[in-house]
Design a protein that fits this description.
The complex is a heterodimer.
Chain A lengths: L1 H12 L6 H17 L1 H12 L3 H27 L2 E2 L10 E8 L2 E5 L7 H12 L3 E5 L5 H14 L5 E3 L4 H9 L4 E5 L2 H14 L3 E4 L5 E4 L5 H13 L11 E4 L4 H16 L15 H10 L4 E4 L3 E2 L4 E2 L2 E4 L16 E6 L3 H9 L6 E5 L3 H10 L4 E4 L20 E2 L4 H7 L1 E8 L17 H12 L6 H22 L1
Parallel strand pairs in A: 3-4, 3-6, 4-5, 6-7, 8-9, 8-15, 9-14, 13-14, 15-16
Antiparallel strand pairs in A: 1-2, 2-18, 7-17, 10-13, 11-12
Helix pairs in contact in A: 2-4, 3-4, 3-6, 4-5, 5-14, 9-10
Chain B lengths: L12 H4 L9 H13 L5 H17 L1 H12 L3 H27 L2 E2 L10 E8 L2 E5 L7 H12 L3 E5 L5 H9 L10 E3 L4 H7 L6 E5 L2 H13 L4 E4 L5 E4 L5 H13 L11 E4 L1 H19 L15 H10 L4 E4 L3 E2 L4 E2 L2 E4 L16 E6 L3 H9 L6 E5 L3 H10 L4 E4 L20 E2 L5 H6 L1 E8 L5 H4 L8 H11 L1 H4 L3
Parallel strand pairs in B: 3-4, 3-6, 4-5, 6-7, 8-9, 8-15, 9-14, 13-14, 15-16
Antiparallel strand pairs in B: 1-2, 2-18, 7-17, 10-13, 11-12
Helix pairs in contact in B: 3-5, 3-6, 4-5, 4-7, 5-6, 10-11
């Protein structure tokens, strides 16, 4: 493990990953890989999550292609130095912020979107000029094996390395030193990752999870709301970090919601959900049993059917759920939708705020004031109003958590920035030393007053004004020097 | 457990970990948390009032602060002004001027599917922020982050360094009077108390200090998944090219090295130059030092003192490294170390192994720019990197082929005065950044918001299963790259 990281570090040290042309070539190669090997990729994802080709394509591959194209288009702009506003003291200097690669980045992926959750961060890390160690989740083993095979075929083998394995290998890997770690997964392991990073003072981006609440107001288009909630909830069999985890609504709405969600489910997956090619399965037996145990003692409004052999769990809704029960104590990550009745929006806000900050917050209402009030009154990684999931699809929005749902963010430019060090640079010449006289000891009150003048004023426009003030500065320096000596 | 009750409404987990033992912080933290939950710190008016309070604190207590800084670090009124008071005032004024702009939602670019929606990034306070500040610029490094945390709408606990005692006293006794004390508290103590404090959960921790303690802070933060900004340090290299005017360079290097008796995280720590340049630089440095501080620097009011016995002894030990060519004197009773230049220094010697943080400047010889770059790249990334040369090519080379928190060409750390530049480290010199708007952004959670248009469900129908062939093709096109970056 150590040798692998050393090798990648040495490759980064060569400087090869820095020129923009190199980064472009790698991104283009990645694009070619996704297009040429599409069938293999879809098959691997399909094998891991019982996902149809189309779903795998629309949920993972498209996102990745979009990100590559965005990065290719914007790379010159994002990698360029950005000039910074100067003050009078630095008026004649060059001041700018230069984005630089960090070095060796570690990306630890998750099993629920095993392809996208590796490749999307990878795109950002490559674009920012880093070398990368990729550790796909061993739970989605087909995709992990495929990535280990494909990435070295298309990308620079010394700069980008795939490491496979389970908990033991990951623990070993985390002992090594990296320049940034991006981890997608659960809170418990997130803490372990950050602890390991602390030993090397490695900055981290942690994309974790939580219970993303979904408030349904009485004043909303219930048909649309339930259809969208059902879509977001049962996609990938509920195994989505930003799936609406549970619903909060007034008691009178419960039955209606159950009915409409049930209708939506029928519309999506047909009478026999098990037969639908668009409905996925639980990733493994451990999670299957975990989700199964969440149903104990609950009032099942519809669904609840399970088949251990195929790890099938039917879309299920629970009503009148007691907040103290198990299903409300952990992130469900399955096709179970609890409805927790609350009196009104205020009680919903209180309920949400008593709990850990979620990765996403959803609210359905025609009343935009209410939506605003609920957003203002809560906190979460992201928000989608009158829909679910969609804020994830906009690369202009930072995707990340807050509190126990995570720290840091990525997607689009946010990826580029996450994997860069934005280095401030101030370049002066050795000339005009006369102007510096003001600053050197021995000191005096008049110097203090001049220092205040130069440091507290900010300018950014007219050249003439600039020249005038420069002359003024020089004059002042000369006068003080003359006066002092 | 993600669904369990969050501290704030329930008992703070930090206090639960040591039952029966008096936790001096539990009540204060609980109070501040409740204040945050009440929403008091959110309105712009409240935040502006806090910032104005800071401004008033600086203006009304100038003399008191100058006296405290003089007691702690032998700072003259001038030094206090330019390195602490003015910078603080600057940060406060800048924040007040820009608060409303910063608080606004930032609009985001939309794609084809979200054209009719409202897309923006909402800046929200994290909640309860902990600021741990050091002793070398005890006012500036407390108030600087504080400005950002307050402007961003957080409740703040400030733990100033116990080593800069006099300033600590002013911050503890006078500062709270100018701020809303339900949302702000100063806590005091040494390493042990700080350890206990760190057992509690905060929503953000801002630490300025050494890398060693930085690791401890981050490890403690990891237990609660608390994001951190760590402003650390390291050995800041100062490359002096053969192609330069030695006197000008010596002026700048000596000034920034000796400022605050060398106790500055961004001070040039050591010089890299050729033996030929060294021969010219040393007399020029002597000339600069004499000009700034006179023949007997100990008598100059403009040269600071070492903060404590412990650091004094540490620095005195460094004086025996290499060979002293300038200075080398020390006076224990006065905590005085003379501006000193060392040559013939070996890499393995202590003076090249730890951050000096004193008025001692070792010179290490290199034969070329390339050798200097290699030397720098073999070591930890520093907080600041300096390159002096008449050749802008040489400066650019140094910049392009190294990494550091900040970079200055032909200059010292004046970049600190620019609110438009982010200030922070990279690698061992730190993570995160602040100053100006970067402070506000550091102490804010950037919440991605998409408010979907409630109607037009027809358009969404293609999103739902089952998917016909036609729909599959249409979705593939709509989500495709060209439309993702549309408009």
């Amino acid at each position: 493990m150590e040798r692998e990281v050393q090798r990648v570090r040495a490759a980064f040290g060569s400087g090869r990953s820095r020129p923009l042309t190199f980064r472009r070539r790698q991104l283009e190669a990645l694009r070619v890989m996704v297009q040429e090997r599409e069938k293999d990729i879809l098959a691997a994802i399909g094998a891991d999550l019982s996902k149809s080709e189309f779903n795998a394509y629309s949920q993972e591959v498209i996102t990745v292609l979009g990100e590559i194209d965005l990065m290719l288009e914007k790379l010159p702009e994002w990698a360029a130095a950005k000039p910074a506003q100067r003050n009078l003291l630095t008026m004649l200097d060059e001041a700018y912020i230069q984005p630089e690669p960090l070095g060796v980045v570690l990306i630890i992926g998750a099993w629920n979107y095993p392809f996208a959750l590796i490749i999307q961060p990878l795109i950002g890390a490559i674009a920012a000029g880093n070398a990368v160690i990729i550790k796909p989740s061993e739970v989605s083993e087909n995709t992990a094996k495929l990535l280990a095979k494909l990435l070295p075929q298309y990308l620079d083998q010394d700069l980008y390395a795939v490491v496979t394995g389970g908990v033991e290998e990951t623990t070993e890997l985390l002992k090594q030193r990296f320049d940034h770690i991006l981890y997608t997964g659960n809170t418990t392991v997130g803490k372990i990752v950050m602890q390991a990073a602390a030993k090397h003072l490695t900055p981290v981006t942690l994309e974790l999870g939580g219970k993303s609440p979904c408030y349904v107001d009485r004043d909303c288009d219930l048909d649309v709301a339930c259809r969208r909630i059902a879509w977001g909830k049962f996609m990938n069999c509920g195994q989505t970090c930003i799936a609406p985890d549970y619903v909060l609504c007034e008691p009178s709405l419960q039955d209606l919601i159950v009915q409409k969600v049930q209708e939506a489910v029928k519309g999506f997956y047909g009478e026999n959900v098990k037969e639908s090619p668009d409905y996925e399965r639980i990733v493994n037996l451990r999670h299957f049993k975990r989700i199964q145990s969440l149903l104990e003692g609950q009032k099942i409004a519809f669904g609840g059917e399970m088949d251990e052999a195929t790890r099938y769990i039917a879309p299920t809704i629970l009503t009148d759920v007691d907040p103290g029960t198990k299903v409300m104590q952990e992130e469900i990550f399955g096709p179970i939708l609890p409805i927790v009745p609350v009196k009104n929006a205020d009680e919903a806000i209180q309920f949400i705020n008593e709990r850990e900050k979620p990765l996403a917050f959803y609210v359905f209402s025609h009343n935009s004031k209410l939506i605003k009030r609920m957003i203002d009154g809560t906190s979460s990684g992201g928000v989608t109003g009158n829909d679910v999931i969609m804020h994830f699809t906009l690369s202009s929005l930072p995707f990340g958590g807050v509190g126990s749902s995570g720290m840091g963010a990525y997607h689009g430019k946010h990826s580029f920035d996450t994997f860069s060090h934005q280095r401030p640079c101030l370049l002066k010449t050795l000339k005009r030393e006369g102007m510096n006289q003001l600053r050197y000891p021995p000191n005096s009150q008049s110097k203090v007053d001049w220092a205040k003048f130069f440091m507290l004023k900010r300018f950014n426009k007219e050249r003439l004004c600039l020249l005038l003030l420069t002359l003024l500065g020089v004059l002042a320096a000369v006068l003080i020097k003359a006066g002092y000596y | 457990m993600s669904g369990t009750k969050r501290p704030g409404s329930a008992k703070d987990p930090g206090s639960e970990s040591t039952p029966g033992r008096m936790d001096p912080f539990a009540d204060t933290l609980q109070r501040l948390r409740e204040a945050f939950v009440s929403g008091r710190t959110r309105p712009a008016k409240f935040r502006a009032a806090q910032l104005k309070g800071l401004s008033l604190f600086l203006q009304e207590n100038k003399q008191l602060l100058q006296e405290a800084l003089a007691q702690d670090l032998y700072k003259t009124a001038f030094h206090s002004e330019v390195s602490e008071l003015i910078l603080c005032q600057n940060q406060v004024d800048f924040a007040l001027r820009n608060l409303h702009t910063w608080m606004k939602d930032e609009p985001g670019a939309k794609n084809l599917m979200t054209q009719l929606d409202s897309v923006f990034i909402r800046k929200e306070p994290f909640g309860l922020v902990l600021i741990l500040s050091p002793w070398n610029y005890p006012l500036n490094l407390s108030l600087g982050p504080l400005v950002g945390a307050l402007a961003a709408g957080n409740c703040v606990v400030l733990k100033p360094s116990e080593i800069s005692k006099s300033t600590m006293k002013v911050l503890a006794e006078v500062l709270p009077r100018y701020l809303d004390q339900s949302c702000f508290a100063v806590v005091l103590g040494g390493p042990e108390e700080t350890g206990r404090l760190l057992e509690h959960k905060f929503d953000y921790i801002f630490f300025t200090g050494s890398p060693r303690v930085g690791k401890i802070v981050m490890a403690a933060a990891a237990k609660h998944l608390t994001p951190v900004t760590l402003e650390l340090g390291g050995k800041n290299p100062c490359y002096v090219d053969d192609n330069c005017d030695p006197q000008t360079v010596a002026n700048r290097v000596a000034f920034f090295r000796c400022f605050n008796a060398g106790q500055t995280c961004v001070a040039p720590d050591y010089v890299l130059c050729s033996p030929e340049m060294q021969a010219q630089l040393v007399p020029a440095l002597q000339s600069a030092i004499t000009r700034f501080y006179g023949n007997d620097p100990q008598r100059s009011p403009d040269l600071g003192r070492i903060i404590s016995q412990k650091h004094f002894q540490r620095l005195r030990g460094l004086l025996s490294c290499g060979r002293v060519v300038i200075g080398g004197q020390s006076d224990e009773s006065d905590l005085y170390i003379a501006p000193t230049v060392l040559v013939d220094v070996k890499e393995a010697e202590p003076v090249m192994q730890e951050e000096i943080f004193g008025p001692i400047l070792p010179i290490v010889n290199v034969r070329s720019l390339d050798q200097a770059i290699d030397f720098i790249n073999r070591r930890e990334k520093p907080l600041a990197l300096y390159a002096f040369s008449n050749s802008s090519q040489a400066v650019k080379q140094m910049l392009d082929r190294t990494s550091s928190g900040n970079f200055a060409g032909n200059q010292g750390f004046t970049f600190l005065t620019l609110t438009s530049l982010p200030f922070g480290g990279v690698g061992q010199s730190g993570m995160g950044r602040y100053h100006g708007k970067f402070s506000f952004d550091t102490f804010s959670h950037h919440r991605a918001c998409l408010l979907s248009h409630p109607g037009l469900e027809m358009l969404n129908n293609i999103r739902y299963p089952p998917y016909s062939d036609f729909e599959q093709k249409l979705i593939t096109w709509a989500l495709g790259s060209h439309s993702c970056t549309l408009l």
